[in-house]
Amino acid sequence: MAMRILGITGGMGMGKSTVAAVLGRMGIPVVDTDQIARNVVSPGEPALAEIRTAFGPEVFGEDGGLDRAAMARMVFGEPEARRRLETILHPRIRERWMAWVKQGEQLGWKLAAVVIPLLYETGAGGCFDRVVCVACTDVTQRRRLLARGWSLEEIEGRRQAQWPVEQKMRESDYVIWTEGREDLLETQLRHILASVLG
């Protein structure tokens, strides 16, 4: 049987990392594109030079590395700047996770999962056998993001840059609701995996 590829998406602070961690504990290989995005802008990477050319030195720290907070402030209030950044990052991110999937196929994996917050926004829906949307209420999302130190303005700016979670839920094959205990989350995942592999 060909390897099945599961896409994991959802809104910020809705539990995608928790779902990824549970899948990992269940023995499912998982790659998180947020981590790939950090690697893509690490020192020496071509994307870093492109970002400096496009946005200038003000989004860089004294150590020469990308100041992610400064970058976020610049792009999340300015759609054109955000599109410019996405043009630099998204093709590189996709290239890396697709190479990871190909490696898994060569290794004979039965199932693998890719966490992509902007799965639909980047047109990646067709790359997966099934898509899972991780979701919670707006109130819970806001509480979780405020606990991370985000301001209400930052939360709203980033929300505006993504599809509404309701739209992602409609487009997805499955929805995981993360309001409950983690063992309930695992139960939901086991049902989904049985369906995908069945």
Question: What's the layout of helices and strands?
Answer:
Blueprint: E1 4-10, H1 16-25, E2 30-32, H2 33-40, H3 46-55, H4 68-75, H5 79-107, E3 111-115, E4 130-135, H6 138-147, H7 152-160, H8 165-171, E5 174-177, H9 182-197
Parallel strand pairs: 1-3, 1-4, 2-3, 4-5
Gist of the model:
With 198 residues, the protein is an alpha/beta fold. It is built from nine helices and five strands; from the N terminus they run E-H-E-H-H-H-H-E-E-H-H-H-E-H.
Largest sheet: 5 strands, parallel
Low-confidence region ranges: none
Number of separate structural domains: 1
CATH architecture: 3-Layer(aba) Sandwich
How many DSSP H or I helices? 9
SSE class: alpha/beta
Mind explaining what this structure looks like?
This protein is of the alpha/beta class. It contains nine helices and five strands. The protein has helices spanning 16-25, 33-40, 46-55, 68-75, 79-107, 138-147, 152-160, 165-171, 182-197, and strands spanning 4-10, 30-32, 111-115, 130-135, 174-177. Strands 2-3-1-4-5 form a five-stranded parallel sheet, with helices on both faces. The radius of gyration is 17 Å and the shape is globular. The model has no long low-confidence stretch (mean pLDDT 92).
Write out key terms for the chains shown.
Rossmann fold, alpha/beta, 5 strands, 54% helix, 5-stranded parallel beta sheet, 198 residues
